[in-house]
Every structure is written in C-alpha cells, then in structure tokens.
C-alpha cells in the first residue's frame, strides 16, 4: 500500500533551515549558470545555448536534502539529465567544481549539458541524457553490487544505494519497465528511484489518468512506494477548519489546471478556489488568512519542495527494499514561468533574473559567490554544514587492479569449426583451466544473455560456473536426473546473470558490469551474447554504455544470411556498420577460430587498457574448414584489422578482400582466378572498423601536422599496383568494405547484402545474394574487362 509521507515535525529546525538555504543556493546557481551561458557569455555563432532552468528549479529541494543530508558515502546517483546544472552547483559548493567550468557550461571543454562520467570534471556516477536509461542502469548497478559482495569483490560495509533522480516523463520509457521486471526476478535491493513528479514533460502537462497507476505498477513489482504530495505548510492548512475541503480540491484538480493556476499566481488561485469550494464551511475564512503571495506559496508547497517532508521520506526508507519516491513538484518552482506548460526550455530574461537575484538577497556582482550575501557567520556555518555532509567524503574512483590475461588462449581443435562453437569452447576451456592465470581470469568473467544463452553457445560455461542468484536455486531437472545438456543451478558464486528477452536490459547490465571497476573498485570481464540482428533492439542502451566508457565484450551470433534456413527476420545486414559507427566499441569479425582465440585474448586486454574500450565480435554458426598456418606472422596484422591470407605479388593487379564466414567461397574463387590473374592476393579483414578508423586517424594526424604515419590499411594495400582492382565481399552491408577503394584509388566491386534475407540453404542464399564463388569470379571478370 502506498504511503503518503507527512513532514517530520521533529526534524531539527537548524538542519531544516540550512537545507532550505542550500535549496535556494542551488536554485540560484543553476539558474545563473544557464543565464550566464545564454545571456552573458559571448556567442560567436548566434546559436541558442540552452539549458533547463525550470527542470532544475523543480528538483533543487530534492537534491539539497539528498546530497547534503541523506546520501551515504557509498551511494551512487544518476541525476536526471536536465538537472545537470544543479549537480554542478552542488559540487561547486563542495569546492569540487571550478568557477571556470560553470562559466563555460555547455561551452567547449566546459561543464556538460547533461552529467557525463567521461567529460565532466566533477565525480559523476552515471552519465545521463537519453531519458530512461540513466534510471534503469541504477537497478543493474545494484545487481552488480550484490554480485561483487557475493564474489568477495566488495565488502558489505562498502555498499550503498543506487539512486536515480528522474523526471516524471521518464516513466513513459519502456526500458524502465523492462528493468523493473528483471529487477523483480533478481530480487533487487538497495535501489531508490526518486521521481520529480512535476507532471510536465517537454511538450505539455502529463496525463491525469496515470495518477495512482505508477504506484500500482511498482508495488506489484515489490517496490515500496512513498508519495510526497503535500508540504509542511499545506499539511498545516489541511488541519485547520476548511482544510479538508482544500485538500480534496487539490487531490481532484487536473494536472493542467494546477499548472496553469501556478503560473497565474495568487489572485487566480483565490478566484478559482472561491468559485469551486468557497461556499463550503470555513473555506472562505481559511483563504482569507492568506494574502495572494502567501496563497500562491501555500498552493505550491508540494511535498517535493518541502525539506521536512523530504527528510521524513528518506528516513522512512531505511532498509534495503527498493523504493520509489513520488515527489510532487512544480516545474520552474520559484521562477517566473513556474507551471507554464511551455517552460521546459524556457529561459529567464535579464529583467527576470535580476528580479530573482534581488528576491534571493544576492547583491549585483556577487552572483557567483558560493555563499553570497549570507553574512560571515551564516556563510561559515553553511560551509561547515556542506563540508560535514557524507557526500563530501565520497570515495574517489579508481579503475580497480588489472586482471592478468594469459599470453595466449588455446585454439580449439578441429579441422572444421564455426566461430560460435569455438567461442563457447574457449570460454569452457578457461572455466576448466588448471593454469592459475587462466583460472583467475575465468573467475572474473561474468556472462549474461537475454534468453539466448544456449543458442549463442554460452551453455557450457554456465554448466561450469552456474547462475548468479543471491538465494540458492536448485536445478530441478538435474535433481530429478532428467537428461539435459544444460545443468544450471543458481547460487551466490554463480557467474551468469540470466536475463529475460529484453536487449535493452542486456546492454544496461553490460554497462553496469562494465563499470564495476570504477564504481566498486573491482574489475569484472563482462561478456554478453545476443543474436546479431537484435543488437539493433538495444542500440541506444549500447551507445549509452559506450558513452560512459563501460567495458564489455559483446558476442553476436548468428549473423548475416549465413544463418540460412532460420530466415529473413533473423538475418543481420547492417550490423557491421553499427560496429564501425559506434565510438567506444571495436568490431571484429574473425573468419577462422585461431583468429577468434587471438582476438579474444586481445579483447580481454583492450577492455582493461586505459585507452581501450569495449569489443564486439560478430560470429557465425557456419562450420568451415580451418586454415593450416605456416607461422604466426599473420597475428600482429590480424589484431590491427586485417592480414594477407594469400600475399599478393608486388605490383599485383588485383586482390580479393573479405570478412568472416564466406571465407570458403573466397578461397574457391581464388583457386579459379589465380591462373588468370597472376599475383592475386586475398586480404582477410578481421576488423573493417579498425582499418577504417586507422585510415581516417592517420589522415587527420597528417593534416594537423601531428604525424606522418600511414595507416595499417594503407600499408596493407601498398604492394598492389596503382591501377589494381579489388573485389570486396562480406555477409552484411557491402559498404563495410567498399570504402577500401578510396585508400589508394583502386577500383572496387563490392559484394554483400543490401536487401532482407530469405529462408534457404547456403548454396541457395549465396547464389541469390551474390556471395558465392561464381559471383566473386563474375565481379573480378567485370572489373578486368571494364
Ligand atoms: C530518449 C530521449 N527522448 C527524448 C529526449 C528529449 N527530452 C528531454 S527532456 C524531455 C522531457 C522530460 O520530462 P521529464 O522527464 O518530466 O523531466 P522534467 O519535467 O523534470 O524536465 C524530453 C522529451 C531525451 N532526452 N531522451
Ligand atoms: Mg516532468
């Protein structure tokens, strides 16, 4: 049952007064930071800088009480994106943010528009920006915290709450409910979601019909819901004669009317209340006790603006149960456009900000002073209060000790193999390895998958290492001796987080696991598997993880039309372009399993390197003949993105260039063509992404005079004659490789897939999509005839 909070009447008055003053400081500093960027800083391009004064003012009391009173030293917070300036103001008061950064808010190298872990200079626990994702990631972070405690990677005393400060319109994002469901299954705890319930989104006021529905939804999923509806002044008014009628009126008032009246102010409130309930007993007398300004103040004294109510609410959630706080607020509270439906991006004009300054008692010229115009004693007292708040001793993040990686990962045996099966085998070997380095690495691997653990070949690893569950979970089938290849029991030492089918959750889980080092001090090696086409389902969450430099290995199979009979809706086409276009993620697509073993070892290092990142492996279920290697000279180039599988003769006139599963078709075409095209080579591109990045980076460094280096791809293609021709081929969008012609001006015939797939056998599909040896030979012939 939802609890509606009442103000803590026993709250220490000095603390309440201090937090009220801090609220005013935050409201002022956030508004002034945005004002400075828009009205005072010089603008060379005439563009509006922007910022959200109304969204900030709505949440300043919540943030003042949270940060300067309720937050524990190990709590971590995702701040709603549009309240970024409030977070900067908090750290400014703490002495952890510079004036220069505030003055350069939204400028090049200045404080960021939305809190950013990687770009801001204050401690930011979670980046936010794409609404909904910053909320849900806190739920996964609390699962990661539990995981680390269960695995001895975090002392129980060093745990905290994972907290999201969210806008009410974020509750429309589906990813919130996907996370909610997953959290319920995993018995999430130590998670607070605090809703700034101003009942306004970007476009308008939000729907009344959702009133009480959010409570139901969250309570159904095991959350405690605490509603902060009325502030202390309202609670006092309700207790007076006529007060019950006033409370009933407030409860029945539609969102949009409440917002409009807030904007119109005291006289409008009086007229409306008088018309609606003025005839009820004692109401006229009650209203007469307030002048217009006091009446406006009373009507907007909602729970989310009342320090004593907020203190009571945070104190009420003193256990580990996940808790949702619905804090009623006014968008633009205390600002001239409070309640106006269009205030989302509204900016005060110079006259309005001057008015706010003088109401707040700040002298002209003292706008940036952290404790402006408080008087010496009060300023000293406030500085001491701020310095004593637990947030002031928030531990500094460290990346966590690096996990040693074996020099080589063993290559699975077998003359014929698929990269997907080999991936599962390599993980299994790690899980069972007697080598201490390999075993220690396996201990830090955590796997996860949105209901495709078996079909992406993680099953064997899970058999070895188990499912992660805080409470033991028996494998009923196994206990009943029912034969099954998958023997999965759940326990605290388990290393696989089983997810339902929701790819957003996969990427948010990978993000949270991939931040285990900086957030909790112990690194993990997260590996997530997914069907390649369904990466697209979680794309924004993938981008979100990369944006905050979370480190994980993403392994996607099956891929391309090579999937065969399973059909057209499961065949990934543009995934290579996603891999190439996503910053913070390096895409590899090995053709042979020795390449895969090499690249996985590299990936485990890259995930931990200071200048590293995440890695995406696009694998296949197709079993192909493996290559016999004469030596290991190919390896260094394979890690850099490509190597000559068949070295071309110097000044060769042609090369076949390929990526991934269609290697056999390329080799067959080669055998056919090599007699006619002397010196023909085969370039195996293990990473179109790395080759392309290296190419453009080398150009950029030459143009800016920072280097003279040639890129790896330039060096690879250098042996070819100036007028050489390339046939490129990939089971995916042909543009992943067609650009190679631009490197040294070679003519290109680009084979690949650019329409939806079909069901069929591989020969059917390769013939139809022009991925077979004949297509390669035809393309080469045409290039030479042209
Ligand atoms: C995924 C995504 N879609 C759209 C936006 C643009 N946008 C920014 S804020 C916002 C409305 C936010 O309303 P609410 O969450 O209630 O915040 P508040 O009222 O506190 O500003 C929208 C649509 C966004 N940032 N992210
Ligand atoms: Mg809102």
What report would you give on this structure?
- The chain has a six-stranded parallel sheet, sandwiched between helices. Strands 11-8-12-13-15-14 form a six-stranded parallel sheet, sandwiched between helices. Strands 17-19-18-20-21 form a five-stranded mixed sheet.
- The protein has 33 helices and 21 strands.
- The protein is elongated, with a radius of gyration of 30 Å.
- With 786 residues, it is an alpha/beta fold.
- The site of magnesium ion (MG) has 7 residues, from loops.
Instruction: Strand order, main sheet: write it out.
Output: 1-5-6-4-3-2
Write down the Rg: 30 Å
Q: Distance between the terminal alpha carbons, to the nearest Å?
A: 77 Å
The fraction of residues in strands falls at 5-15%
Strand elements, count: 21
Give the helices and strands, then pairings:
Blueprint lengths: L2 E2 L8 H28 L12 H18 L5 E4 L4 H10 L5 H5 L29 H18 L11 E6 L6 H12 L5 E7 L15 H8 L3 E5 L3 H7 L4 H10 L2 H10 L1 H12 L5 H6 L3 H8 L7 H10 L6 E6 L21 H10 L16 H13 L27 E2 L1 H14 L3 H9 E6 L8 H7 L1 E2 L7 H4 L10 E2 L4 E4 L3 H11 L2 H5 L4 E6 L8 H9 L5 E4 L18 H7 L3 E4 L4 H14 L7 E5 L5 E2 L8 H7 L2 E4 L5 E8 L3 H11 L7 E4 L3 H16 L8 H6 L2 E11 L4 H4 L2 H4 L2 E5 L10 H7 L4 H13 L1
Parallel strand pairs: 1-5, 2-3, 3-4, 4-6, 5-6, 8-11, 8-12, 9-10, 12-13, 13-15, 14-15, 18-19, 18-20, 20-21
Antiparallel strand pairs: 7-16, 17-19
Helix pairs in contact: 1-2, 1-3, 1-15, 2-3, 2-14, 5-6, 5-21, 8-9, 11-13, 17-18, 17-19, 21-23, 24-28, 27-33
The structure holds thiamine diphosphate and magnesium ion.
Thiamine diphosphate binds next to helix 2.
